[in-house]
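Why do we bother with holo predictions? Because pocket geometry can differ from the apo form. Keep that in mind while you read this record for 2-acetamido-2-deoxy-beta-D-glucopyranose.
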Amino acid sequence: MEHNKASASSNLNKLFLFFSFLLLPCSASAACAQVDRASLLSLAFRPPLNWSSSTDCCSWEGVSCQQDDDDHRVVRLWLPWRRLSGVISPSITNLTHLTHLNLSHNSFSGPLPNDLFSSLSSLHVLDLSYNRLTSHLPVFSSKTTRLETLDLSSNLFNGSIVVPASAAAILTTFNVRRNNFAGSNPISFLCNNRNNHTSLTILNLSVNKFTGEIPPGVGACSKLQVFRAGFNYLSGYLPGEIFDLADLEELYLPGNRLSGHISKGIVLLTKLKMLELSSNKFSGPIPSNIGKLSRLENLLLSINNFTGHLPPSLTNCANLSTLILRFNHLTGDLSAFNFTTLPRLTMLDLGNNNFTGELPQSLYSCKSLKAIRLASTQLTGQISPEIVALKSLSFLSLSINNLTNATGAIRILMGCKSLTTLVLTKNFLLEPVPNDENLAELDGFLNLKVLALGGCLFTGQVPSWLAKLKNLQALDLSYNLITGSIPGWLGSLPNLFYMDLSNNLFEGGFPTELCGMPALTSKETGDHKVQESFLELPLFVKPNNATNQ
Ligand SMILES: *[C@@H]1O[C@H](CO)[C@@H](O)[C@H](O)[C@H]1NC(C)=O
Ligand SMILES: *[C@@H]1O[C@H](CO)[C@@H](O)[C@H](O)[C@H]1NC(C)=O
Ligand SMILES: *[C@@H]1O[C@H](CO)[C@@H](O)[C@H](O)[C@H]1NC(C)=O
Ligand SMILES: *[C@@H]1O[C@H](CO)[C@@H](O)[C@H](O)[C@H]1NC(C)=O
Ligand SMILES: *[C@@H]1O[C@H](CO)[C@@H](O)[C@H](O)[C@H]1NC(C)=O
Ligand SMILES: *[C@@H]1O[C@H](CO)[C@@H](O)[C@H](O)[C@H]1NC(C)=O
Ligand SMILES: *[C@@H]1O[C@H](CO)[C@@H](O)[C@H](O)[C@H]1NC(C)=O
Ligand SMILES: *[C@@H]1O[C@H](CO)[C@@H](O)[C@H](O)[C@H]1NC(C)=O
Ligand SMILES: *[C@@H]1O[C@H](CO)[C@@H](O)[C@H](O)[C@H]1NC(C)=O
Ligand SMILES: *[C@@H]1O[C@H](CO)[C@@H](O)[C@H](O)[C@H]1NC(C)=O
Ligand SMILES: *[C@@H]1O[C@H](CO)[C@@H](O)[C@H](O)[C@H]1NC(C)=O
Ligand SMILES: *[C@@H]1O[C@H](CO)[C@@H](O)[C@H](O)[C@H]1NC(C)=O
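The structure, written out:
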């Protein structure tokens, strides 16, 4: 904007007008138009709002007005989180001056009035998210040319979506996440303003039943910052046009049937912070130049068919916080990857790949790590003492690898004071179960809730240090070669409610103490399950189960 002294007084006037406009809705003389008052009353919200007590509807809760000629017209109806239920009455279409309508987080049900969009042609903002609205969306009329923000997420709308070019041109936010919309991808309407570029910045189509490919034309949505269409039935390739979206920060497409290779063109998305393509059918290598995405924070590509090595350039993504690549066919020596340059890494899951080598020593310099899952990746070697530098480490799963030195591992990990979940299933084959006298004196694992040491073919007796784990909820020692008797003190662990000791070589009877296990006999029996809130990553415990990987 350009300013000069000559315009200063006119700016002052504008400022004055601006403030008096702000004051209008509160001023005592303002009285709302009869038609608006009548429409509001016939909305008949349930439960009723405290509305009729004053004749001036502009002072009613959630209502704001603006002067229009001699009348004060209702421009804003803002009633989120009011526990309102029932159908949204067609009377709402008589509030023809409405610009902002927010009825989100209520319990409205049934269809919307058919002429909603044609009657409320001044609407800028429409937020009906988090209700139980059903049926088809009313048709966008050619008069719907002011709507900038549309949020219909978390409802039960169905049918397909058609947006005329006139409306598409002005929309900046289009959020229909979590509905039952079907049919072809509305991108073909939203990004196809007769070859004119659109204003759309946030597009959220996730959790619906959209089918077909990501249509051509998506490149015309050149202002797009967020593109989310996860958990639909989208198929085909990622079109090259997506890489024209230079402002894109989030590309979120998990849970579809997308396939093909990820082109190196992805590095054109220089503002990308999140790339989430999990649970698709992508194949080929992770682009070797991916390190050029220097703003990348979240890279999630799990459950696909990616092959090749972890690209060394990834170490340039210094902002990386979540790296989830589990269930692919990645190969290579993991200890050759240098994690040192990823200080913000919080979640790491590279499990169920074909990596080799030892646990990378450089990983221990990622001080922000809260969760590590490197299960089922053919790792060899030992856990090294440097791991205690990971002060926030809460979740560690290294199951189904070829690690050795169980006693050393347990002694070291007892120094990781934040650990709540430790899964070492199927390692340390035929070693003695860690059971040194002094392990019990280390006061380790005081926060541990889940401990899985199954399928290791451990020999020896149930270790006595387990008796100190007062927070333990789940213990798996199955599929070992543990001998001796089942100790009665297991029954006094106050929070233990899941214990698998099957397939061992125990002698003697089942100790009666176990029948009195506090967590099992408490009133809430049956409600017990491992609280997922503290699990940073998915957990697979049982060693005899094929999904345990
Ligand atoms: C209803 O609104 C009137 C006027 O705005 C106010 O004085 C009164 O306290 C309100 N009553 C309740 C129960 O909120
Ligand atoms: C809208 O207002 C008109 C005139 O005031 C009235 O006749 C009509 O019934 C109203 N429509 C609805 C749906 O309330
Ligand atoms: C509607 O109200 C809710 C609750 O205050 C708010 O979170 C949401 O951002 C509002 N919607 C819009 C589009 O501003
Ligand atoms: C859409 O929802 C309405 C109301 O729940 C239902 O009657 C109709 O059959 C649904 N249509 C489709 C195509 O699912
Ligand atoms: C394209 O946009 C320009 C500028 O916003 C406008 O003048 C023109 O009419 C638009 N063309 C079409 C076909 O919508
Ligand atoms: C849709 O996407 C936006 C932008 O990423 C995100 O903030 C939002 O949580 C998503 N879901 C809903 C229901 O808005
Ligand atoms: C990976 O590729 C194989 C062979 O082409 C195929 O059978 C399998 O379904 C693919 N997996 C995924 C997750 O796409
Ligand atoms: C790992 O490699 C082996 C042998 O090449 C192959 O049989 C197996 O399917 C691969 N596993 C994964 C997860 O790629
Ligand atoms: C890893 O990178 C850091 C920082 O760039 C460097 O100092 C270190 O020598 C590297 N380590 C290995 C094993 O290459
Ligand atoms: C890991 O252990 C399995 C089972 O004992 C063995 O078949 C495999 O060869 C070992 N792999 C490595 C890399 O040592
Ligand atoms: C096992 O680990 C402990 C602790 O790191 C170490 O002191 C010990 O030497 C290791 N034992 C073997 C056989 O490597
Ligand atoms: C593994 O466990 C899951 C969940 O409990 C079960 O659905 C599946 O059938 C099991 N698989 C095998 C091979 O036992």
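The pocket of 2-acetamido-2-deoxy-beta-D-glucopyranose (ligand 5) is lined by residues 193-194, 196 (CB under 6 Å).
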